[in-house]
Structures are given as C-alpha cells and as structure tokens.
Design a protein that fits this description.
With 358 residues, the chain is mainly α. The chain has 16 helices and 2 strands. Helix 1 runs antiparallel to helix 2 and helix 4 crosses helix 6.
C-alpha cells in the first residue's frame, strides 16, 4: 500500500527564510562579549526584527489557518518583495564569505525571480544597510559583497552605468543602531528572560510566526488554557511594571494599617512586592508566600483590582488573568479559588465599606 507523501518544508540553499535569518542574527549578537555603549541592545533589536517580520506577514496576507508547511514556506521572502534588500543585507552578514559570490550570482541570474537592476540594489542599498547595522563582526562578508559588485561593474563597464534603483523604503529608518525606540517593559522583560536560554522554538514563539496576533478578546477557555500553560507551580513569573518600587510599596503597605492586620509587617510587604513584581532599576528577589489578610474577601479583591486598573498602566494580553493569579499565589483568602471564576468577578466592587485610598 502506497501512502500519500507528506508535504515538507524545503528551500534552496540561497533562499532566505526571514525567521531563520532573524534568529541567527540575534544569536550572533548574543555571542559578542563587549558591545559599544551606544549600540542597540540585543533585546531591542530582536523586538524590532519581530516587528519587521510581522509587517512582512501583513504585506503578504499571511494565512494563520494554512498548513504548517505553507506557513513556513511563505516566510521565504521573494526577491521582488519591497523588504528583500533589508533581509538580504542581514542574511549576507551571517553567510559564509566564500558562498556570497555564488549566492549573489543566483539572484542576479533570476533563479528565484526576476529583479530589475539587481546589481544596483546590492551596490546602492544592500551594502548601505549592512553598514548601518553593525551588530557584530562581518567585515569579511561585507568585503565579499563589495568585491562581487566591483567584479560585476567591471564586466558591464562597456554598458551604461549602473543606476541607483528606485525604492519606497527609507534607508535611514533601517538604521537600527541610531534610531531610538521605546519598547513596552513587558516585552522587554520577556525578551531578557527568553535570551538567557535561547533556542529557535522560543524565538519562533516570540515572533508568532505560526499564528497571527490579534487585539480581539479570546474565548474564555482559550485564555484559561493560555494562562495555565504559562503559569505553573511553583509560579515564579513576575508582573512587569513601569512604576517605581517605592510607589508599589506605598500602595501595598496600606494592608499593614488596616485594623486586625497588625501581624503583617513591612518585611512581609517587601517580600510580596519583590517576589511578584519586576522593576526596571532593581532586581526582583524572594519567594511568594501566602499572606493571611484579615479583611473581607471582596474588599481584598477590590484592593488588588484598584491597583491593576488605576495604578498599573501597562497593557498586555491576559493582564487581568495575571493579576488574578497573583491573588491566588499570595493571599490565603484566594488560595483555592478558580482562576476563571476569579477573573469574571475581578472588576466587581465591594458591597461593603471600602477602607483603602485609591
């Protein structure tokens, strides 16, 4: 019995899968031991590559419901795509120098699609992008590209001069070294943790290459599965904040001032804050411990919700679920609560007198 052959993902040695290319670029950046102080961080560059990949996906109407093979295949960028010069520049910086002439010959000979004035693109755009993105040492690769351009120009010296191609891409915007972009602290913290133990699967997940991100509210059971898969016992995840440590301490110290809570000391609140929140300018520490707060459960719920809603301006997917998990992890009153049920009632105000300031 002959079984039908399964579709497999494949590409030519010289074709460029932009996800694989981005991953290798970040790996090369990580390997640099001493980076110039004014150079972009690995985390920020990885973030920008993710945004560039998502922009590419939007431009080709990426179909998240297609087969896995198809989704991988469309990430092999065509030389006719407007962003090809940028990805070719990055790919050339990680290619073996002795392979570069053959790679450029293949594209120049239209093996992967016709490009008008390919030599002009390499001479005027690709080399400029390579020089703008000095992420690690690729002098040998850059020289190989320049030598290839000179050789091609020598071959065509009897023809009309190679002209600079027309492009809709602002090359200065591709200078990732000089540009300054503010990254959401949650994404930056994710990246920092991800890069500590970096592999292609983690990078692929970060890029969301196999599914399209959306701003729509997911189904409740989908959110539940997503949160439960990311929050496991023991839960060591911390909530990223743009607030100062002192601001968070001031808010949660209110618990020590409530009647019947004299047993809660400053050191308990310090542990609560340091073990559960991540700050830009200080290292998190400690382990999560259950606090026995002597107040009505609905009041404690509103106390946490008020901080979530009025004090923490960060936005990210499942933020409310993360805070509900925070309640389960840190307060005896919520220790045995169901995460989904807690989320549904999270914004409900207390029916009794609320004793805390907002």
């Amino acid at each position: 019995m002959n079984l039908p052959e399964k579709d497999t993902y494949s590409k030519h040695r010289y074709q460029i899968n932009i996800v694989e290319c981005a991953y290798e670029v970040v790996q090369r950046m990580k390997a640099v031991k001493k980076r110039p102080k004014n150079q972009i961080s690995v985390e920020e560059y990885a973030f920008r590559l993710r945004e560039a990949i998502n922009a590419y996906k939007r431009s080709i109407d990426f179909d998240p419901s297609a087969s896995e093979v198809s989704r991988k295949q469309v990430c092999v960028i065509s030389p006719t795509h407007p962003a090809f010069d940028f990805w070719l520049a990055l790919h050339l910086s990680i290619e073996e120098a002795d392979e570069i002439p053959m790679l450029l010959d293949a594209y120049n000979d239209d093996e992967f699609g016709h490009v008008e004035n390919f030599l002009g693109h390499v001479q005027y755009l690709v080399i400029k992008i390579m020089k703008s993105n000095k992420l690690y040492d690729f002098k040998e690769q850059k020289n190989a590209v320049i030598d290839w351009v000179r050789e091609q120009n020598e071959k065509q010296k009897d023809q009309k001069k190679i002209k600079e191609p027309q492009t809709t891409i602002n090359i200065e915007q591709l200078n990732f070294i000089k540009n300054v972009t503010s990254i959401d602290v949650h994404i930056l913290n994710q990246l920092t943790l991800m890069l500590q133990q970096f592999n292609f699967e983690q990078f692929n997940k970060f890029v969301n290459i196999y599914q399209e991100s959306t701003n729509e509210e997911p189904e409740e059971d989908e959110v539940e599965n997503d949160v439960q898969s990311s929050i496991k016992e023991p839960n060591t995840d911390r909530i990223p904040l743009t607030l100062e440590y002192s601001q968070v301490m001031d808010y949660f110290m209110q618990l020590t001032k409530h009647k019947n809570n004299g047993h809660i000391k400053k050191k308990d609140i310090e542990n609560l804050v340091k073990a559960n929140f991540e700050f830009r300018d200080m290292k998190s520490s400690g382990k999560k411990k259950l606090l026995d707060v002597d107040i009505e459960k609905q009041i404690l719920n509103q106390f946490i919700y008020t901080f979530f809603n009025e004090h923490d301006p960060s936005y990210y997917r499942n933020k409310a679920k993360v805070y509900c998990q925070f309640m389960i992890d840190n307060f005896l009153l919520f220790q045995h609560d169901n995460l989904t049920t807690l989320r549904k009632n999270f914004s409900r105000k207390s029916s009794v007198h609320y004793p805390f300031s907002k």
